[in-house]
Amino acid sequence: MGDTVLITGGAGFVGRHVASALLAQGHRVRALDALIEQVHPTGVRPPDLDSEVELLVGDIRDETMVRRAVAGVDKVVHLAAEVGVGQSMYAVDRYTSVNDYGTAVLFQQLIDHPVQRVVVASSMSIYGEGLYRTVDGDLMQDVVRGRRNVDGSWDPMDAQGRALIPVPTPETKTPTLKSVYAINKYVQELLTLTLTAQYGMEAVALRLWNIYGPGQALSNPYTGVLAIFASRIANGHPPMVFEDGRQRRDFVHVSDVARAFLLALDSPAANGEAFNIGSGEDRSVEQVARLQAASMGRADLEPLITQQARAGDIRHNIPDLTKARTVLGYAARQDFSERLAELAEWVARQEAEDRVVEARQELEMRGLVL
């Protein structure tokens, strides 16, 4: 028989895919999820959560529920978290309570009910700006971007006023924490790696890039950017793109992310380590917006380029996947164009409420759009 694996946040987008992948390998899966309204508007078990998953509905901060969830478990995938850079900058108490105090509650129980291994979902946001080099070839580790440049451009500059060039960011880059969400995820990562080592358990942290795929919460304006674009396009509105749209990101399919979690649960050499998880291909946000509109049959919807930035946003961040490939044996398998078409077909069957303008107004009211 396989292991019994607890997935906190297991009814969420990534959790459901990880659960299906674990079941396919013969493991038993228990999920703990609060089914919060922002992610689960109906408040009921998601229809695409595999029927074999034992679902416990409860809060990660509820020690009684967490004690029940960890009982008899061999391994834990810790996904439970409030997600979203922008919202984290004003819902500070909620984000910090769920993400960091919730992780503390989990480990308070794991101290008394230890497991073999914990894999925690960290985030590329902990790096802040990614790694850059100058036009002279010098690497720049600690780039902190200010407001828009005098000439109207958005890229970070060197001391001579020349635009820096983004390069793949390795796990060795020093974190530069630019948002409450980034701080939360780094604390989750450190708590996991520190406490497991102290109490005889193993741990792995996966620093996830921009995840997309069917099953994402389309009506949540703080979810992944592709789901946000899809919601806008499905409602006949142009995708809203901050800054000039040339900021570059790596978009990784949720099935590749699920496979990375399975590798991290089992790889002996991964213990105590953090790994970047992405696709290995980077694109500009404007390019992705156009591709998604075309895939949904709405190429006429030109991206709305706001020429504004949100507090906590970064310019460029693309992953160096060398360590994940070497140690975990991880490599993304999904083709972006094919999976974007799949996402479009799934969106066409959903009802999506476009709440992006409402979310932007909330940020503007609080002075978080620059």
Features:
370 residues; alpha/beta; Rossmann fold; three-stranded antiparallel β-sheet; 11 helices; 34% helix; globular
Number of domain units = 1
The biggest sheet amounts to: 7 strands, parallel
Question: Which superfamily, in CATH terms, is the homologous superfamily?
Answer: NAD(P)-binding Rossmann-like Domain
Give the CATH architecture. Answer: 3-Layer(aba) Sandwich
Strand residue percentage: 15-25%
Secondary structure: number of strands = 15
How would you classify the helix and strand content by structural class? alpha/beta
Provide the CATH top-level class. Answer: Alpha Beta
Write down the secondary-structure element order: EHEEHEHHEEEEHEEHEEHEEHEHHH
Gap between N and C termini:
54 Å
- Tally the helices: 11
Stretches with pLDDT under 50, minimum 5 residues: none
Average pLDDT metric: 90
Percent in helix: 25-40%
Rg result = 20 Å
Strand order of the largest sheet: 3-2-1-4-5-9-13
**What fold name stands as the CATH topology?**
Rossmann fold
Shape: globular
